[in-house]
Amino acid sequence: MAPATPQDYDAKLAQLERLADLLDSRWRIPGLGIPIGIDGIASIFPVVGDSATGVVSAYLVYQASRMGVPKNVLMRMAANTGVDWVVGSIPVLGTLFDIGFKANSRNVNLLRRHLEEERDRNPALRPTLRRV
């Protein structure tokens, strides 16, 4: 079920952006300044850590589907999540990949882009899409 009002879309998008930030870039690696989130930290534990964060990433895709995102966008989001899980599960290399790839941020950007295009087609039905 899609959110009912533009404000509902704003609230849901803001929630998913916060989740993506937590997973991908909430903190910075000291001395390097490279953003890292729970996904990068959890990938230190190959397969188990990536599987746990993969479930949360799948929730993001699920919420996008509830917002009425078309299948082609959902497939791109699912592909980002799948690549993140597969490559992220490789010891050492996967951790570096997770830190750089940021699948959740990519997915939220895909969602935002779709919602902005929808808003442009019909401004009365879509959110203001404020950046958080």
From TrEMBL:
**What is the name attached to this protein's record?**
Membrane protein
Q: What is the lineage of its organism?
A: Bacteria, Pseudomonadati, Pseudomonadota, Alphaproteobacteria, Rhodospirillales
